[in-house]
Design brief:
Layout: H1 7-18, H2 23-35, H3 39-54, H4 77-80, H5 91-100, E1 104-106, H6 118-125, E2 130-133, H7 136-141, E3 149-151, H8 154-166, H9 168-185, H10 188-205, H11 208-211
Parallel strand pairs: 1-2, 2-3
Helix pairs in contact: 1-3, 2-3, 6-9
């Protein structure tokens, strides 16, 4: 019946008191708790034994506050537009929805090196016309505004989305080009070949002693 905030203090007080009991008594409490399936008795006896042998537990080091991204400060989009946000899809249903979309929107995290997420390759591979924020990694994987549509600001994103919806022939051409690039250069087989070639290059450049 203790409030949650008082439970840690009570636990520490019981452990501090129990550490004065002989080891044989604490072990008996542990065995009795195990037999009766009382986890609290087992954990308490074990903690008291550790306290006797190793002293009080040291406080955890202070950690840095987690990095705050833009979406941590915004109201979730599912609450802003509940009639337009649908439950998550996975597997075949997910890829089918990508393929059926007129435009698939993509945005990367606000940090360096976060470009070229999985959605970039999944949407293009499914044959969707993808509208994605321009990053160096994105431009390296696909030709901007040829195999994917790119934007650099919110205003440009809105403008590009409207243009793509109003020009189905150009939208379909971008989707087809992006899918062809995915099948040609970004399949599992192609990526495996690239990784293998990279490791071979590293091994050849390494000193003989290190390679051995």
């Amino acid at each position: 019946m203790l409030p949650p905030s008082a439970r840690p203090q009570m636990r520490r007080a019981l452990i501090e008191s129990a550490r004065f009991l002989p080891d044989v008594v604490l072990k008996a409490i542990y065995k009795a708790g195990k037999a009766a399936r009382l986890g609290v008795a087992m954990r308490g006896a074990e903690a008291a034994l550790r306290r006797k042998r190793y002293g009080p537990e040291l406080p955890l080091p202070a950690t840095k506050p987690p990095q705050q991204f833009w979406y941590h400060r915004e109201q979730p989009i599912r609450e802003l537009y509940p009639e337009r946000i649908h439950p998550s899809l996975f597997g075949v249903e997910y890829f089918a929805r990508l393929a059926a979309s007129k435009v698939t929107w993509n945005r990367h995290l606000e940090m360096d090196g976060a470009g070229a997420n999985m959605r970039l390759f999944e949407a293009c591979g499914a044959g969707a016309c993808q509208l994605v924020d321009l990053r160096d990694e994105v431009a390296h994987a696909y030709a901007p505004d040829t195999e994917i549509a790119v934007y650099r600001s919110v205003e440009e994103c809105i403008e590009k989305a409207r243009w793509l919806l109003e020009h189905p022939a150009q939208r379909q051409a971008i989707a087809a080009a992006g899918q062809a690039r995915t099948l040609r250069d970004h399949s599992v087989a192609k990526r495996t070949e690239a990784v293998h070639a990279h490791f071979v290059e590293l091994l050849r450049a390494a000193p003989a002693s290190a390679a051995a």
